[in-house]
Amino acid sequence: TPALNPNTVTFSHFDSTFCSRFSSTLRNKKVLMYCTGGIRCVKASAMLKSRGVKDVSHLKGGIHRYLERYGSGGFYRGKMFVFDRRRALDPEDLICGDGGGEKSSESDGHNVDGGDGLGVASGIDEKGDGIDINEKDDNMDASAAVSNDTKEKIDNNNNTDNSKSALVGKCIECQTPYDELSGAILCTVCRDLILLCDSCRSNDSSLWEYHCKRHQSWKNAYFTFLDRFSLQELQSQHDKLQCLHDSYIP
Questions:
Q1: DSSP letter for each residue of 155-199
Q2: Could you tell me which residues come within 8 angstroms of residue 7 by beta carbon, excluding any fewer than 6 positions away?
Q3: Of 88, 94, 100, 30, nearest to 62 (Cα)?
Q4: What one-character-per-residue DSSP string does the chain give?
């Protein structure tokens, strides 16, 4: 089942945006939630339940534990983003015993294609407040997480794909598949990390500052460092920002 991307900038917006918008749609459906380490799903599922969505489950241990168990042998493609100096981790590096002793902690993140690291899928059959892929219980065990039909799909998928070659991210400028994050490539508006390939970074002399996907409309209007612009250019930027400002007002 395709997941619903909450499209939230920060998790604090989840209840006021996603829950308020989709709670009525999800009220009579089975919902499975997943995030990087599982902690935010505990809070998010409580938010949905408070709005009348009764049948809500989450993946215990999150994507991190799933990758510890299956590596690139599951359905996850791409790298897992984490909020520390590692930036993005390959699934194969998270299999238990590798990756320098990785733990299923809440190093919440998302794949390097973007999002806030929280996914919501509706129409899921499994029950339980926390679906554990490692322990056998009445909720869901590893065999339930990878049923016979699912195993066949995974086997077929692995015959044609590999996580190390599955680039799910794209360069913000040229749209070339790319997944290498850098702490130096940030949106000048919101300071969010941006995927920018080496070619665009080195060959495009106009890229003094960067703008994320949400702020592409600000690209020719908003900059942090203004000393390189003439008075005429600054006035033009001011006019464009004023137009953007007016467009946000109902």
A1: HHHHHH--TTT----B-TTT--B-----TT-BBTTT--B----HH
A2: 17, 18, 115, 116
A3: 94
A4: -PPBP---SSGGGTIIIIIHHHHHHHTTS-EEEE-SSSHHHHHHHHHHHHTT---EEEEETHHHHHHHHHGGGSS--SPEE-SSTT-EE-GGGGSTT-TTT---------BTT-S-S-EEEES----SSSEESSS-SSS--HHHHT-HHHHHHHHHHHHH--TTT----B-TTT--B-----TT-BBTTT--B----HHHHHH-TT-SSB--GGGGGGTTT--S--TTS-HHHHHHHHHHHHHHHHHH--
Structure tokens at 115: 């999002």
Kindly give the confidence (pLDDT) of every residue in the chain, 250 residues in length, as a single tens digit, with 9 standing for 90 and above.
677 888 887 888 899 989 999 999 999 899 998 888 888 899 999 999 999 999 999 888 888 888 888 887 888 888 888 777 777 888 777 776 544 344 433 433 344 434 445 556 544 333 334 444 444 333 343 333 444 455 555 455 554 455 445 788 899 999 999 988 888 899 999 998 899 998 898 887 677 899 999 899 999 899 999 998 999 999 999 999 999 999 988 7
Contact call for residues 36 and 110 (beta carbons, < 8 A) = yes
pTM: 0.64
What the block records as the tokens of 10 is: 């920060």
Rounded Cα gap, residues 220 and 233, in angstroms: 10
Question: From CA 4, how far away is CA 13, in angstroms rounded?
Answer: 15
